[in-house]
Write the structure tokens for this entry.
Amino acid sequence: MGLDEDALEYHRSKPPGKIEIATTKPTNTQRDLSLAYSPGVAAPCEEIDKDPEKAFEYTAKGNLVGVVSDGSAVLGLGDIGPEAGKPVMEGKGVLFKRFADIDVFDVELDTDNADAMIQTVEAMEPTFGGINLEDIAAPECFEVERRLSEKLDIPVFHDDQHGTAIISGAALVNAADIADKELEDLEVVFSGAGASAIASAKFYVSLGVSKDNITMCDSSGIITEERATHEELNRFKQEFARDIPEGDLADAMEGADVFVGLSVGGIVDQEMVQSMASDPIIFAMANPDPEIDYESAKAARDDTVIMATGRSDYPNQVNNVLGFPFIFRGALDVRATEINEEMKVAAARALADLARQDVPDEVVKAYGDQPLQFGPDYIIPKPLDPRVLFEVTPAVAEAAIESGAARTEIDTEAYVEELEARLGKSREMMRVVLNKAKSDPQRVVLAEGHDEKMIRAAYQLVEQGIAEPILIGDADRIESTRRKFGLEFDPVVVDPETADVADYADRLYELRQRKGITRREADELIRDGNYLGSVMVEMGDADAMLTGLTHHYPSALRPPLQVIGTADDADYAAGVYMLTFKNRVIFCADTTVNQDPDTDVLEEVTRHTGELARRFNVEPRAAMLSYSNFGSVDNPGTKKIRRAVSRLQDDDRVDFPVDGEMQADTAVVEDILQDTYEFSELDDPANVLVFPNLEAGNIGYKLLQRLGGAEAIGPMLVGMDKPVHVLQRGDEVKDIVNLAGVAVVDAQQE
């Protein structure tokens, strides 16, 4: 099947289309229904009647955008009408929800009259928190947006105009920097004089480009003042008429710094590119075929050609999804009355800044592991970069507040946490820990410091103020990697081959001389990053340690266990995973260390896992799991669990509820706990699950992760005398940063 056939099947498979309405409140009981509708719904209705602003408090209006179109200029399909354009509008709704958690009603209007459209949308204002105009032909689109913006007290945004302007504007800021050119000095040529081109030209002026340096061409050639006096040019084109000789696109491009194509494919050749100024910037954004293809433009010159297109199969895709979801998110959250120029500029600047940051591994993998590093082939972020939400959105919200468009204000730091929570519970939970870490950063040894991911993680730890990383590894290799990725920081490096590690070798020998290690072996082992890092932590020259990225878990765990050992109140270490679901967090133990724990181990693991949960601001409720419920099976396996429960319940140090043995569904289903086992110590479902052995723990957490859709953070070691965490082989940079944050908070407790 080809793409068209696949798309048809995608859209018609049941249920047809791409969107549905989902409830956000419980509707399981008669009381739920009486609250949702009659008679309970009368109460919010009366409150809104007294104060219409209460609609934002009692209804979904504040998170609801209307995507409005007449189908007169749909994608590259032209005037196909409102019904044929509906799949595109539904698609727009999918993007709003996927990228910014904004709900959408798509509204297709069967009218070719601008006045009728304006009147209809104005009448719908009570329904929506914002209006996104879509696929409306020029020049009517300018008038529709202008008049609706004046009439409505909610944000109005025509994405076809401003989306391309904002995204390409961000690209222009970075491209000019790379080409070492000032925005105000750029000579810019536009091919196309429709809605996107005119809006982009105006926006470039807002960014700093001189209007006198913009040359706009339509199908008849350069738009000049001479043409404007003899032809019927609409007033939007006339705004960019220049007092220069008439000519065609080739004439306009000669000596230009920037070409912006928003017209048709294949109208620019290599000779035209060769006629441009040094290190030209070419944004060939016609879809699906650009004005000049990527390979031809790059091959036309020997200097740097900075190229962007509208296509995803080439670098630097100008994709509007980088803009509208996040602009509306910021506007909605401060109850903005409009989306003004200051907010658009803030969005472009934030996108430009984000492109200069190190790119997460998850984004690199999503795009086929191609290198993504600030430079000619990476001047704008990728659409699937999750950081766009909490980089661009706060910038837009702040600009709305500063420009007077906002009706409410926000605390930026708290707002970023709220936005991160929209991306998943794990981000919300990690933000708690990372904020604690930033309050008092500690020294964290990264034992495999020569690894690229460790170096990039170290950079992020320094940039975000989470920790003071110490990289163990080859100093030259670390410096080469730092330069390769353009990481502007000066890491602390301990090179075992060149550093003076004699004192550490002495200490290792002292600790292990009666454990089978000779003096000579100690001198050799201290060159191993895991042993060196462990001794540094044990001697107090570092506060915590991370390892395991390139080692098997047992071999990575062995050195810190031998050197640092367990805490004074612990005889055993254990591995814990935090699993985050949409509205629930669960800590699973032990998942990595103890194969067949006895009563003593189970008791310790439960106590330490409860303490770990509190570092995430989670009040623990522990269930000790089995295939038995409270004595329904009596054998050595269930008896050891019951003994552990009894000890924990009698232990004054344990100030959280613990119960068991119980089956997994008993532990996590409220109805079972309260109805069938009302005697249980757990008043609410458990959030700490202690498994009876390593086999069950490892299987259980992986099933929850894969089939239950949970995100996993860990494994986190508990019970160690000093903070040590062992990564999983192949973990990403964000996993390293997260565990480093946990290690810092552990060290703060010390």
Summary: The radius of gyration is 31 Å. The chain is about 45% helix and 10% strand. The longest helix spans residues 159-178. The chain has five domains: 16-158, 160-318, 331-422, 430-562, 572-718.
